[in-house]
Amino acid sequence: MKAQLEAMRKTAEEKIAASKNRDDLESLRIAYLGKKGELTAILKQMGSLSADERPKMGQLANEVRSAIEKKITEFAEKYKEAEKRERLALETIDVTMPGKDMTEGHKHPLSIVLDEVKDIFIGMGFQIATGPEVELDYYNFEALNIPKGHPARDTQDTFYITENVLLRTQTSPMQIRYMEQHKPPIRILAPGRVFRSDAADATHSPLFHQIEGLVVDKGITMGDLKACLETLAKGLFGESTRIRLRPHHFPFTEPSCEVDVSCFRCGGTGCSMCKGEGWIEILGAGMVHPQVLRNGGIDPEVYSGFAFGVGLERIVLSRFRIDDIRLLYENDVRFLSQF
Amino acid sequence: MLLSKKWLNEYVKIDVGDKEFTDVMTMSGSKVEGYSHEGEELSNIVVGKILSLERHPDSDHLWICSVDVGADEPLQIVTGAQNLKVGDVVPTALDNSVVAGNKKIKKGKLRGVESCGMLCSLSELGLTVHDFPYAIEDGIFVLGDDCDKTLGLDIHEAIGLNDMVTDFEITPNRPDCLSVIGLAREAAASFKIPFKTPEPTVEKGEGDVNEILKVNILDKKDCYRYAGAVVKNVRIAPSPRWMRERLRASGVRPINNIVDITNYVMLEYGQPMHAFDLRFLEGNTVNVRLAEKGETITTLDGVKRELDDSMLVIADQKKPVAVAGIMGGEYSGIMDDTKEIVFESACFNGVSVRFTAKKLGMRTEASARYEKELDPSGCMRSLNRALQLVQMLDAGDVVNGAVDCDCSEKKQTVIPFDAEWVNRFIGIDVSADEQKKILESLEFEVRDGMIYVPFFRGDVLHQADISEEIARFYGYENIPSRDFSSDTAGKFSDTQKLERLISNTLLACGLTEAATYSFISPKFYDKICLSPDNKLRKSLVIMNPLGEDTSIMRTTTVPSMMDVLSRNFNNRNASAKMFEISNVYIPVEGSDLPDERKTVTLGMFGEDCDFFTLKGVIEELMRVVGIKDYDVKAVSDCEYLHPGRAAELSAEGETIGLFGEVHPDVLENYGIGVKAYVASFDYATIEKYSDLVKVYKPLPKFPAVTRDLAFVCSKKIPVLTLKMAMAKAVGKYLESIALFDVYEGAQIPSGMKSVAFNLVMRSADKTLTDDEADTAVKRAVKALGELGITLRS
C-alpha cells in the first residue's frame, strides 16, 4: 500500500506538471483526490491493515494528499497569473484617445481675481460690503470732498441720470454709506461696478470694476496701510512681491499715495510689461480725510483710518496678459474658456 | 507739465543723473511721466563752414560744396539747396549720421559725384522757423550769431538743442507746481538745497500808469484781483535764443518778444498773463464784469462765441475784449504794429472759469490753471517779472507803476505745529526739528508753535495736510509697515455665501460666467419683443450717454444674455452655455434711486442643449440652494419665450423667474439660426426660500421594493399631474417616483402618450411584503384611473 501511495504521488505530480490549464488541473484533482478518486480507492484498503500500520499508513496518505494539493495550487496560481496577463494584454486601449466630456463651466477672469482678493481680505478680518451702482451725487462726490465745480470731477467723466443721481464713478461712496451705518472698528472691502463715460477701446471701458477698502479704528496709521497692501500684493502676485507707495492726490484721502507692485513678470528688473520701470501701478490709497470721516459721522479726533481703491481690470489684464479690455465684456466662449 | 532742466537749474542747481532726478522727484510727490533729451535722435551732426560752391557738372540744381568741419581735410558734400554762399556756417551731417525722423546719412554718390554727408535744414534737425526766426523753411539752416560757430562742434551744443525735458503729472490740488518756480521749490526740498521764491524788480521807467489805465472790478465774487501795467514804444521782435529754447522745451511755440514774455511768465510763475493792444481798449479802461446775455466775442482762434450772464469777461467801455481767464478777443492780440500794450496779471474764481470754459467748449493753458484756484498774492510778482523781461529784452518802455485792484481775502492759513500728532498719524518717529526743516524747505513758516502756510499752498488746510508734507519728504518708503493684526472676524455674509454657491453650482453644471454692461439700448426691448405697454420698458435714462446702445439702465437681463448668445453664434461657436449674476435697475416711484435687483441669468444654445438641459440645470440649482417645494408651471404669455415651451419657476406661490425656449421672433431679431434657451431668476426670491440647513436622515435598514409602471393618457396631461396623483395614492411607503420614458407612436392611439415611471417604495421599520407593495400600486392605478388614465397593458 505504501508503494501504491508512493507511485500514485509520482504519477500525479508528473501529470500535474504536464497540465496545460486550470481545467486540466481540476480533472486531475477529481481523478486523484475526489470522492471517487484514486486516493479514496487506495484508502479503502486501510481496513486490511494491522492496527499498528494503520496510523502510519494514514499519515502517509495525508502527506501524499497535501503534496498533491500543494502541487495543484501551485500550478493553479501559475495558470491564473498567466490568464490574467493574457486578459490584461487583450484589454489594452489607446490611451491617447480623448476623455469623455465632463466640462465644467469657466469662471469669468474678473471673478477669478476678485474671489482671490476677497479671500485675502477675509483673512485679514475684513467683511464684504456692497452698495448701489446708481448713486446720489452726494455720496459719489460731495461727501468725498469733491463739490460741484471741483476740477477732480473732470478726471471722472460721469453718466448722469438726473442732476443729482448718477452712475457711480468709483466705489468710494461706499466709505460714507458704510460709516453712516456702522461704528468703528471698521474693516470692509467693497467691490463693484463703476461707470465712466469713456468710449470703449483697448484700454477703456465705460463699465469697469473697483475694489474699495476701508479701515477705521483708533490709532490706525500709514504703517497699517502699508502692511495691509503688502499682504494684498503678496497674496495676489507671490511672496517675493514688493510694494512702493508714491505720493499722490485724492480729494478724500490725506496723505494720499499711488501704489506700485514690483513687476510680477520680471521681478523688478524691467521688462516690456512694466515698460522697463520694474513697477506696475495697481491702486490708489491714503489716510481717510478728516472731513470724510466727519461726513460719515465719525470723529476724526478719536479715530483714524485708511482707504484704498483697486482697479480690478488692470490687475486682470496684466495677470493674464490680455491686451484688450473689451474682451472681458464680449463674452466669447473661445476667450472665456481659456480661464 | 514739461519742465526744462536748464530753466530749473537757473533756480536750483541739481547735479545728479537723469534717473536719480526723476526717481527722487517721483518719490517726493512730483510724478514723472517720462523724460527726454532734445534732439536725442540726432547724431554725428557738426558745425561746418562752406569753403567753396561749384555747380554739379551733370545737374542744373545741385551744388558741390567744400565744407570745413574742423578736420584736417574739408569734406565734399553735394547739396540741392539754393540758399548757400561761401562762408556760411551750417549744420553738417557727417558720414554715418542720423537726422530727424531717424534718417541715416551715409557717404554716397550723387549723379557720379561723391558726397561725404549732408547739409541740414531746420526740419532735418526737428526744428521750425519758430525756433530760429531768421532761418528759412526750404533751405539749409545758416547759423546766426546766436549760435556757437566753432567748426566741428556738435550741433546740439552749437544751437542749444541740448536741454533735458521732464514730463510731470501735476495733480489738480497743486496748481503751484504748474510752474518752473513751483517745481524748483519741490526739487530744492527733495534734494535738500536752499530755495526762496525770487522777487523780480523793475527798473524805473517813465510816466505813471494811473494816468493811462483804469481798472474796475465789477464782479468781485468771480475776480479776486486784477493788476495791469502798461508798456509804451513796444518794439516787436523775435525773442532771444535762450527764451525761445525754454519755450520750445516747455512745448510752447515762440511767436514774438511780447507774446513770448506772457507765455514765459506763465510757465515760470504759473500765473497766466495776457497782453492787450491799448489801441483797441476803448477808453483805456478795463471793466471786469459778467457778460450780458446775448453779447458775443470773437476769440483769438477766430471763433465767434455767444456769451451768457454767468460768464466773466474783460471788457473795455463798450465791448468784451477777453473771456476772463480763458482766451482773449481777436483784437486784443499783439500785432506787428502794436505800439502800446497792457499786461494783465489777474486772478479769477476757479469754478467760474471752469464752468465758462466748459460751456464754451474751450480749455486753454490759462483756464486749466485758473480752474484749480490760483494764488491772488502772486499777481504782482508775475506782473513785475513780465516788466523785468521787457526791460531785459528791450521790448519797450515800461510805464511806472501798476494798477492793482485787489479784492482777495488775505487770510493766511495757520495750523498748530504738533509733531507728535504727525508721528502718530503716519506711524513714524521724526523729531520736531526735522519736521520744521521739511516745512521750511517748502517755504512754510514755523514760529511760536504755529505753522504759517504760504499763500500759494491753498491745498494745505489741516493737520492731515501737514502730515502729508512731512511724510513725502521723510519718504513714504521709510514709513515702517506695522503688523496689521485684527480684532474683527473676517467673514462672508450669508447672502455672499449663497451667491458663491450659486455661481459654483452653475459652473459645475457646465455654464460659463459672462459679464455684460448694465446699460442697454431702448431698442433692445423691441428685440426681445416686449409689448409697447410692458412695464419693463420703464427704465432709468442716462442724460449723457455715449450712444443709444448704452443709454438706459436695463430692467431685465434677457437682452444682455441674448446679445451674448448672438455674439457667440455669429462667431461660429458651436455652442455656448452661459450665466451671469448681475443687477437690473427698476425705477421706484418717489425715490431718486432705483431698486437694484440682483438677477441670475442663464442662456444656452448648441447641439447638446434643449429645454430639459436648461431645466436640469435649474433643478440642480434648486437642490443645491435647498428649495425643495418649488413649482414649475407652463406659461404662454411671456413675450420673449416660445408660448409652448416656457415655464414659470415659483416657490410657495411666489415667482422666482421665467425660463424656456427663446421665441423664434426673438431669435430672428438676434440673428441666431438655432434654438436657444434662456432663464432669469430674481436672486432675492431664491435667497428667501433657500434653506441650506442639512439634517442627516438615517440610511435605510430595510430593502426597497421597486415597480415599473406605464400609463397611457392624453398628450395634454402634464407628467407632473400623473406623478403627483401617484405620490398621493402610494402614501407613506413612497420613496421616489422617477419618469423614465415618454413614448408616442405605434401601438399608442394618436393624441395619446405612454408615460413610464420607476416607483420605489420602502418602509423605515420593516421589509415590505409584495402584498403591501401591490396594494399601494393598485391604489395608484386606481387614482390615475379616476383621472381617465389607464395602465398600459
Quick synopsis:
In chain A, 41% of the residues lie in helices and 19% in strands. Chain A is an alpha+beta fold and 339 residues long. With 793 residues, chain B is α+β, with helices and mostly antiparallel strands.
The count of strands of chain B amounts to 39
What spatial order of strands do you see in the largest sheet of chain B?
A: 27-30-31-35-34-33-32
The low-confidence runs of chain A, each spanning 5 or more residues with pLDDT under 50, are none
Please summarize the sheet with the most strands of chain A: 7 strands, mixed
Ends distance of chain B: 92 Å
Read across the widest sheet of chain A, the strand sequence of neighbours is 1-4-5-9-8-7-6
| CATH superfamily membership of the largest domain in chain B | Phenylalanyl-trna Synthetase, Chain B, domain 3
The separation of the N and C termini of chain A measures: 83 Å
Q: What is the fold named in CATH at topology level of the largest domain in chain B?
A: Phenylalanyl-tRNA Synthetase, Chain B, domain 3
Q: Which percent range fits the helix content of chain A?
A: 40-55%
Percentage beta strand of chain A = 15-25%
Largest interface, counted by CB within 8 Å of the partner chain's CB: A-B, 79 and 87 residues
CATH architecture of the largest domain in chain B: 3-Layer(bba) Sandwich
Major pleated sheet of chain B: 7 strands, mixed
Number of separate helices of chain B: 20
- Domain count of chain A: the total is 2
Class from helix and strand fractions of chain B: alpha+beta
CATH architecture of the largest domain in chain A: 2-Layer Sandwich
Written overview of the protein:
The complex is a heterodimer of chains A (339) and B (793). With 339 residues, chain A is α+β, with helices and mostly antiparallel strands. Chain A has helices at residues 2-18, 22-33, 38-43, 53-90, 109-122, 137-140, 173-181, 222-237, 290-295, 312-320, 327-330, 333-336; strands at 127-128, 134-136, 165-167, 186-195, 207-217, 243-250, 253-262, 279-288, 304-311. Chain A folds into two domains: 2-90; 109-336, Bira Bifunctional Protein, Domain 2 (BirA Bifunctional Protein, domain 2, 2-Layer Sandwich), CATH 3.30.930. The mean pLDDT of chain A is 92. By secondary structure, chain B is of the alpha+beta class. Chain B folds into six domains: 2-38 and 164-190, 2-Layer Sandwich (Phenylalanyl-tRNA Synthetase, Chain B, domain 1), CATH 3.30.56.10; 43-159, Beta Barrel (OB fold (Dihydrolipoamide Acetyltransferase, E2P)), CATH 2.40.50.140; 209-406, 3-Layer(bba) Sandwich (Phenylalanyl-tRNA Synthetase, Chain B, domain 3), CATH 3.50.40; 414-477, Phenylalanyl-tRNA Synthetase, Chain B, domain 1, CATH 3.30.56.10; 494-689, BirA Bifunctional Protein, domain 2, CATH 3.30.930; 705-791, Alpha-Beta Plaits (2-Layer Sandwich), CATH 3.30.70.380. Chain B has 20 helices and 39 strands. The longest helix of chain B is centred in the C-terminal third of the chain and has 17 residues, at 770-786. At the A-B interface, helix 5, strand 1, strand 2, strand 4 and helix 8 of A face helix 7, helix 10, helix 12, helix 13 and strand 27 of B.
